[in-house]
Amino acid sequence: MESQSLPNTEASQKRRKLLFAGAAGAAALAGTGLALWRYRLAEPEDGALAALWALEAELPTGGVYKLSKLKGKPLVVNFWATWCPPCVEEMPLLDAFYRQNASKGWQMVGLAADNAAAVTKFLAKMPMQFPTPLAGLAGIELSRTLGNLTGALPFTVVINSQGEIALRHMGKLSAEQIADFTKIT
Predict the structure, then answer these.
(1) Where would you tag: which of 31, 44, 167, 179 has the fewest CB atoms within 10 A of its CB?
(2) Pairing state of beta strands 107-112 and 165-170?
(3) What is the pTM of this model?
(4) pLDDT tens digits, residue range 74-85?
């Protein structure tokens, strides 16, 4: 028995290309939808702010940092790690914001989901003016209670002077987004 092949006409090639393009487009839309669903922010859990204020974390240079001392002032809390490229990229922008706005009452803390040796090495190369306590895995859990369902980094929370969450952002911040923090009172 002889096998017969279909003629390879221009029309069938166009149909095949359209079919592949349609399948690729559908896959891209599905992937985008899944990513948006997976990395969405949830509402903060009851008690999340109380847990934040109660946090006491070791500083890489020694000593304990108590977040409770920042209550009553506008505060930027950035969850980060040295092994996270977007975290490392936004750190100089956050530091610049802090240096420009600390005299206006703004506070900032970078909660490192990392170990002391890595953070110390990072800070030796890129010193930050704001404190960077070691929150470790407890910091990731705290970020989850604040609505970061996946524990993705970087994750930033801005708290106004009344102690309310004014902004939450997952992912790398731009200079413009950071500058907009000053609109929060």
Answers:
(1) 31
(2) unpaired
(3) 0.79
(4) 999 999 999 999
